[in-house]
Amino acid sequence: MKPIPFFKMSGSGNDFIIIDNRAAVVPEDRLERLVVGACRRKMSVGADGLILIEPSDRVDFRWRFFNADGSLPDMCGNGARCAARFAFIHGIADRQMAFDTLAGTIEATVGEHGVRIRMTDPARLKTGFPLDLDGRTVMVGSVNTGVPHVVTVVDDIEAVDVVRTGRLIRFHPDFAPDGTNANFVADGPGGRLLIRTYERGVEDETLACGTGNVAAALILAHDRGLASPVSLTTRSGGQLTVHFTMKGDRCTDVFLEGDARVIYRGELWEEAWLT
Ligand SMILES: N[C@@H](CCC[C@H](N)C(=O)O)C(=O)O
């Protein structure tokens, strides 16, 4: 099998393998093995997710987004910014574009120093309810920002055992069967929020989660009456900005803005993923 060209990109520390699959270069019959194999840290390229750019007769392109474990979630905010910049660099779309995801159509604008995407309208925003975590009651909020998220406010972001507590939330029976992502938020300098995320489908803490940042911004805006935009600092130190219109618990015109960096361009050889 011919090696497959790819870009390795990072959205605020959330990293992705992105492949132009418009000519169907990826073997469909071994797709999950390719995703899981290529996303393995140390043994292969390593990534939080893999994105296939594919043709569309409706919008500039459609994508398939895969978590590192091969699961297929509806949306990825950091990945969407990276896919948009990938498409612009490869001449697949202009700076203003639209592409289809399982969550719906995403509009994106590729700027000189970052990418801004219009999120699908959030759903089921709930704040200030108790969750029993191993006998400990924690107050949380939840919202679907393309994928499901739970947000917990903490005093010290460094003191959180993100993997242990994140797993309790991620697999909590209240969110079965699909589970949820788990975000921990604290107040940071200059009115910014500090955020850490345990990510479903990576099954670990990631250095950033775009839809999680949007979830945290909307839940805290709802609880604290914060005005748009809300700025957040991710675990990588990356900066994300969330713009929104909020009336009661209804949010519209939600935009996520942040970086989308090309790390390198490579070729994926079969031996790098065929386990
Ligand atoms: N990191 C992504 C979220 C990707 C999907 C998530 N892992 C899930 O399965 O819900 C983002 O930037 O939004």
From TrEMBL:
GO molecular function: diaminopimelate epimerase activity
Pathway(s) this gene product operates in, as recorded in its UniProt entry: Amino-acid biosynthesis; L-lysine biosynthesis via DAP pathway; DL-2,6-diaminopimelate from LL-2,6-diaminopimelate: step 1/1
Keyword match Transit peptide: no
Residues the UniProt record annotates as site (Could be important to modulate the pK values of the two catalytic cysteine residues): 149, 199
UniProt keyword Cytoplasm present: yes
Main location: cytoplasm
Family membership: Belongs to the diaminopimelate epimerase family.
Subunit architecture: Homodimer.
Stated name of the protein: Diaminopimelate epimerase
Organism expressing this protein natively: Desulfosarcina alkanivorans
